[in-house]
Design a protein that fits this description.
alpha+beta, Beta-galactosidase, Chain A, domain 5, TIM Barrel, Immunoglobulin-like, 3 domains, ten-stranded antiparallel β-sheet, eight-stranded parallel beta barrel, 14 helices, globular, glycosidase, Alpha-galactosidase, Alpha-glycosidase_related
Length: about 725
């Protein structure tokens, strides 16, 4: 089995595809972390646990006092208050006020398959032979607390997943002050840390920095995973790059407040921990109650970042997304938002749809402004009934009209929010997140509904279900445009107020579980002011996400490049928009806007009726081409070649699984004078194949493209791009 327990040495060895993860139980029951990295066939645990002054396998340690300082030992799920002064993975408070805990080994189970996590999204298996699971039970006999560490090793991926489950086995209350999902103690700190950071319209920029003594961390306290930080970090050896070196990825399957941190201690050991942010968090565990932490997906790569990314892409595409659309090609859509904003009529929408049909577009999406008295962003969120002044025939009539043109119909909604100027708020002012006697801060003239309340959850499930049943709606863009402030719930008692933010996420997951299960034929796209909740938790329910509200092609180079560090292309929405761009006011050629958008889920975000005949003809060609390459883009393997964070050029490659077809994209931001010849060496293709370039029929050998490279044609002017489509010679001649 991929998970093996050696009774003699009290050692667990977890094996994923080419990865080993090893932990050891001391004779006194303490659990140490031993190794995480390249697979080892039969490691000698005596060597791995040998320190200059002590051999931990042979030593019978009965207590943690003067005989052993935990402060220099690598641990599996560390506590605070004994002899380890580093950041703990968890912390509890007992009724007597004490916060000391001491977990020791109790028992374990090893079995095939992977368990579901109660109330939480997580990766899964379709066959129990795909993975093996270890449940390691630890117990604190003073607190009567049982903690089960849950590990799953995937057989076909370099993936270990981790989470923890807390259970109060006693008769007194226990308060969780901190409950992270995982901890890994490395024996050294010779790493760089990579994170994906930014802001609204500038999401997931790649930041790489060396580890230094002390704590370095990223986090969100906003109630969502956030535009500012993505719930992901990676540790890279100093020599690691896209193609070489050891890389360790840590990705949290969660959509709320999180913490990911690395602490470098006095011995230059690096402690990585990740999970729900303990800031403004606590959870009351009554006797017999349990608490389940979210899952962390850990990926090891011995060949740089690109291999790590491809592992995440394949796993998340096939064993995180649950939607029936995970294996289906996604439609080309037009969204009316940047074409009309709130100012539209039914006639205008149908005019846009007719233009879309003529261009080969497949899905028309009606964005904000169709409900209540919504003519701006200052009212009506929560009043989910059709504005008949704008749409006299209602959603059903409009959908039928769109369908009669040969297009599918989609709809924007923001169910988690409420406008103070709405019938819903006037009926239920306590339904929003708020704190008594404090102002209710508004953002975009809206408040956040309290999804920790079951009555609010039930309301959202009902109104969304009613809308989806009222018309032939094939797609939903589910938006969330503000973060939480004055976090509190009218229904929770004082001792549970700090549970509100997490209970909100659990409520959101319950809503999404109900709705996506009821409407399996609807393609759901997540949005949070663009990319403010682009995380694995949302991908579990909604197989694609609006990558950013910034639709500028040049800005999108960095955004989509950074997003690809963890997330597959099929999860990214990317659209051609008008120029000057509405976010940065830049004017770029249609060609580069198309090539950037055609690198992900392709769509449009502009007024098609205002295009010239020449632009329409050009767009038709892009739509036709995307339909030809769509399967390759959405299901191919992605390779980053040139980084927009390192220079004036960006390049990436998408290769079919059998390597018989690939797409090469090259982007140059600014032109230069008398530029040297640019030759780009490719990755991931078959060196033994001969490839034909579709554009001109030129023949290239795979080894030539990989080792000598291909010359980039001369480009004139700023904001230029090339997309080259290659097919293996026998396919082309076939």
């Amino acid at each position: 089995m991929p998970i093996y327990f050696d009774k003699n040495t009290r050692t667990f060895h977890l094996s994923a595809k080419d990865t080993s993860y090893i932990l050891h139980v001391l004779k006194n029951g303490a659990v140490l972390h031993v190794y995480f990295g390249k697979k080892m066939k039969s490691p000698n645990i005596y060597n791995l646990l040998k320190f200059p002054h002590i051999n931990l396998v042979d030593t019978d340690i009965t207590n943690f006092g003067n005989q052993l300082m935990l402060d220099f030992l690598p641990q599996e799920y560390p506590a605070y208050g004994n002899t380890d002064f580093r950041s703990p993975a968890y912390q509890i408070q007992l009724e007597n006020g004490s916060t000391i805990s001491d977990l020791r080994y109790l028992s374990h189970k090893i079995y095939k398959g992977k368990p579901k996590l109660e109330g939480l999204p997580a990766t899964y298996v379709e066959n129990e032979d795909e993975a093996d699971t270890l449940e390691l039970e630890l117990y604190d006999k003073v607190a009567n607390l049982k903690v089960t560490l849950i590990y799953t090793a995937f057989r076909d991926y370099d993936v270990i997943t981790r989470s923890a489950k807390f259970e109060n086995m006693g008769k007194e209350d226990i308060k969780l002050l901190k409950a992270l999902s995982m901890n890994v103690d490395f024996n050294d700190s010779n790493f760089d840390m990579l994170q994906l950071s930014g802001a609204w319209a500038r999401e997931r920029h790649v930041i790489r920095r060396p580890l230094v003594p002390g704590v370095q961390s990223i986090e969100s306290r906003r109630g969502a995973s956030s535009h500012q930080q993505n719930p992901f970090i990676a540790l890279l050896r100093k020599d690691a790059d896209e193609w070489h070196g050891d890389v360790y990825g840590f990705s949290l399957v969660y959509s709320g407040n999180f913490l990911a941190q690395v602490e470098v201690d006095q011995y230059n050991m690096a402690r990585v921990s990740m999970g729900i942010n303990p800031f403004d968090f606590s959870w009351l565990l009554k006797p017999s109650e349990t608490f389940q932490t979210p899952e962390v997906v850990m990926v090891y790569s011995d060949s740089g970042l690109n291999k790590m990314s491809n592992t995440y892409h394949k796993l998340y595409r096939s064993r995180l997304m649950r939607s029936k659309f995970k294996d289906k090609e996604r439609p080309i859509l037009i969204n009316n938002w940047e074409a009309t904003y709130f100012d539209f009529t039914e006639e205008k929408l149908k005019e846009l749809a007719k233009e879309a049909k003529d261009l080969g577009i497949e899905l028309f999406v009606l964005d904000d402004g169709w409900f209540g008295k919504r003519n701006s962003d200052n009212s009506s969120l929560g009043d989910w009934f059709v504005n008949k002044e704008k749409i006299p025939s209602g959603l059903d009539g409009l959908a039928k009209g769109i369908n009669s043109l040969g297009l599918k119909f989609g709809l924007w909604m923001e169910p988690e929010m409420v406008s103070p100027d709405s019938d819903l708020y006037r009926r239920h002012p306590d339904w929003c997140i708020h704190v008594p006697d404090r102002p209710r801060s508004e953002s975009r003239n809206q408040l956040v509904l309290d999804l920790s309340r079951k009555d609010v959850q039930d309301y959202i499930i009902k109104v969304v279900s009613d809308i989806l049943e009222s018309a032939n709606i094939s797609y939903v863009k589910w938006d969330m445009n503000r973060n939480m402030t004055e976090i509190g719930s009218a229904l929770l008692p004082p001792e549970r107020q700090r549970e509100t933010a997490h209970r909100y996420i659990l409520g959101l997951y319950r809503i999404l579980e109900e709705i996506t299960t009821r409407f399996p034929d609807v393609l759901f796209e997540s949005c949070a002011g663009g990319g403010g909740r682009f995380d694995p938790g949302m991908l579990y329910y909604m197989p694609q996400t609006w990558t950013s509200d910034d639709t500028d092609a040049i800005e999108r180079l960095k955004i989509q490049y950074g997003t690809s560090i963890v997330y597959p292309l099929i999860s990214m929405g990317s659209h051609i928009s008008a120029v000057p761009n509405h976010q940065v006011h830049r004017i770029t050629p249609l060609k580069i806007r198309a090539h950037v958008a055609m690198s992900a889920n392709f769509g449009f975000e502009l007024d098609l009726t205002k295009l010239s005949s020449e632009e329409k003809e050009e767009i038709k060609k892009y739509v036709e081409k995307y339909k030809e390459i769509r399967k390759l883009v959405q299901f191919g393997d992605f390779y980053r070649l040139l980084s927009p964070f390192e220079g004036n050029e960006t390049a990436w490659l998408i290769v079919s699984e059998d390597k018989r077809e690939f797409l090469l994209y090259y982007f140059r931001v600014l032109g230069g004078a008398n530029e040297p010849i640019k030759r780009l060496r490719l990755k991931g293709i078959n060196p033994d194949f001969n490839y034909v370039l579709e554009d001109d029929g030129s023949l290239y050998s795979g080894d030539e493209l990989m080792y000598a490279g291909i010359v980039i044609p001369e480009l004139k002017g700023d904001f230029q791009s090339i997309m080259m489509h290659f097919k293996e010679e026998s396919i082309k001649n076939g």
